[in-house]
Amino acid sequence: MSFFTDMKAEATSTNIPELVEAVVDEPLAEFDMLAIKRIRRSPFQYRTHIDDHYIEEMAKSCLQVDPTTKEQMGIVQPIIVRRDGNDFELISGECRWLAAQKAGLSHIPARITEYSDTQSLLAGVIENFHRQNPPAIDQANVAQKLQQQLRLPNMKIAMLLNLGKSKSVVSNLLKLLKLPNPVQQLLNENPALFPKTHAQILLEFKLTEAEMITLANQVIENGWSSRELHRRCTALTATDEKEAPAANPVSLWAKKDQKILAKYSEQTSLKVSVKQNGEKTAVTLHCANKEELKVLLKSFNEMA
Question: What would be the CATH architecture of the domain defined by 2-170?
Answer without folding.
Answer: Alpha-Beta Complex (3.90)
